[in-house]
Amino acid sequence: MTADDSSRDRQDAVRELEAEFGEISARMRQVMAARADRLSPGMLPGSYKVFATIVKHEPITPSAIAELLVADKGQVSRTVRELEDAGLVERTADPDDGRSTRITATADGVERLIGARAADPHALHHRLSEWDVSDIRTLTRLLRAATSGRRPDASTTT
């Protein structure tokens, strides 16, 4: 195989991967929209994403949420206010910065999130139910490497 063939092969492989990422992205938007509506009828997928980020990283400041989601701080602030009004999150003073607050999920919010995730009959868990656990871990390792921009290390586990 020549260097040009190898280069073309790599380009084709990357294009195929990009197409699959597009499919995954579209499917995840559908999943997020359905979960958002189950969490709180009428909730937008973006609000669901903010809430899921809070649950994963709590306690978290609004600025950190904006940074993680590459989102406008004003929009994040409005969304947090909506989540607070819905009883899903609560704010407390940030002991490290008196000008800021920390956001945490309420017990009811976490319970509702668990229910919203469990109710999805097409959740990833179900789609991968026939996969070997080692294949799931390999895919996770490779995706983590791709998102971080590092070369995959076969010896690294998830």
Overview of this structure, please?
The structure is a single chain. The chain is mostly helical and 158 residues long. It has one domain (3-127): Arc Repressor Mutant, subunit A (Orthogonal Bundle). It has helices spanning 3-39, 45-57, 62-69, 73-85, 107-118, 124-127, 133-148, and strands at 89-94, 97-105.
Q: Keyphrases for this structure?
A:
65% helix, two-stranded antiparallel sheet, 158 residues, mainly alpha, Arc Repressor Mutant, subunit A, 7 helices
Describe, in short, the structure shown.
The protein is mainly alpha-helical.
Which secondary structure elements does this structure contain, and how are they paired or packed?
Blueprint (H helix, E strand, L loop, with lengths): L2 H37 L5 H13 L4 H8 L3 H13 L3 E6 L2 E9 L1 H12 L5 H4 L5 H16 L10
Antiparallel strand pairs: 1-2
Shape: globular
Number of strands: 2
CATH topology: Arc Repressor Mutant, subunit A
What is the overall pLDDT average?
A: 90
Q: Please provide the ordered H/E string of secondary-structure elements.
A: HHHHEEHHH
CATH class: Mainly Alpha
Query: What is the strand content?
Result: 5-15%
Helix content: 55-70%
Low-confidence stretches: none
Q: What topology, given as strand order, has the largest sheet?
A: 1-2
* End-to-end separation: 34 Å
Please tell me the CATH architecture by its name. Orthogonal Bundle
| Number of structural units classed as domains | 1
Largest sheet: 2 strands, antiparallel
The CATH superfamily turns out to be Winged helix-like DNA-binding domain superfamily/Winged helix DNA-binding domain
Number of helices: 7
Decide which structural class fits the backbone.
mainly alpha
Radius of gyration: 19 Å
